[in-house]
Amino acid sequence: MHIEMNQPILAKNDGIAAANRALFAEKGVFVLNILASPGSGKTSTILAIIEALRDEFNIAVIEGDIASKVDSEKIKAQGIPAVQVNTGGACHLDSDMIRRAVEVLNVDTLDLILLENVGNLVCPTDFDLGENAKMVILSVPEGDDKPLKYPGVFQASQAVVLNKVDAMPVFNFDERAFRTSVRNLNPAAPIFPVSATTGQGIEDLAEWIGQGIRSVQ
Question: What is the pTM of this model?
């Protein structure tokens, strides 16, 4: 006899996610779930997004990590509310973690919540958090074949960020092959080539996020 253990787990998660989504819709908050591998530049991309949008929108960040609070401290140092969620070994955030984190924030004052998920391209994909959109970040040093190896996250995402493009000449990264692979998996998602550290491409990414914020207000 085969028992599918993940079905009841996901069903419970989806129920809480629906409640999260209803709350965010009621408050007019756009929530972006950011997925990436460790070292892809999630936090530096978040900091660049904050810098681009903070004059127009009120922003908070929920930081997911297996342990430590290093990333949330970087966000707080910029004067942005941040809640650290340590998963205690779990390779993803779940909707109940988000529910509890949101209770710490003053949602009535917010326009945008950025969820930095645990560094992983597999586990977080299946867990609905109540977000408006998923965004996957891939960095140039990781290689152009990642969409072929991890198709699920690219299929599930509403936007794809290619980070560290300033390092493209140093690495044997075939951008055309990467774009073709992404397009075959997800024809609709925009692809944003950026360098979070230099600011290259961040304006276009911020405009896409801004459109999402305005669509829920």
Answer: 0.93
